[in-house]
Amino acid sequence: MEDGPIRILVPVGSLGAGVRDEELRYGLERGAQAIATDAGSTDSGAAYLALGKSKNDRGSVKRDLKLLMKAGAEAGIPVIVGTCGQAGGDLNLDWTRDIVLEIAEELGLKPKIALL
């Protein structure tokens, strides 16, 4: 790893694959201005879009999101998730949003959420 500044921190390539807290902290300590991740980068095919399901299980996605949301709130920076729920369809997006709202309640956060 380089010791220079970090602008966009991408702590995991596929949400639910396992964010490592020490890597998250490393990026934040180096000035990250946003945390970003993808939730569909395993190229799993069209079934997840058609069915509105995620390949990664809910518990793993929630664990990763909780770490990211807590870190983002503490640092005052946005958390951006692409291709929600493995495919980015309406059902996948709603599934991820519901997890985010659940975590926000647990952590006492009031996040600004944009769904695209």
pLDDT averaged over residues: 89
Strand content: 5-15%
End-to-end C-alpha gap: 33 Å
Total helical segments: 4
Shape: globular
Written overview of the protein:
The structure is a single chain. This protein is mostly helical. Helices cover 43% and strands 9% of the residues. Strands 1-2-3 form a three-stranded parallel beta sheet. Strand 1 (8-9), helix 1 and strand 2 (34-38) form a beta-alpha-beta unit. Helix 1 (21-29) runs parallel beside helix 3 (58-75). The mean pLDDT is 89.
Layout of strands and helices, then pairs:
Blueprint: E1 8-9, H1 21-29, E2 34-38, H2 47-51, H3 58-75, E3 79-82, H4 90-107
Parallel strand pairs: 1-2, 2-3
Helix pairs in contact: 1-3, 3-4
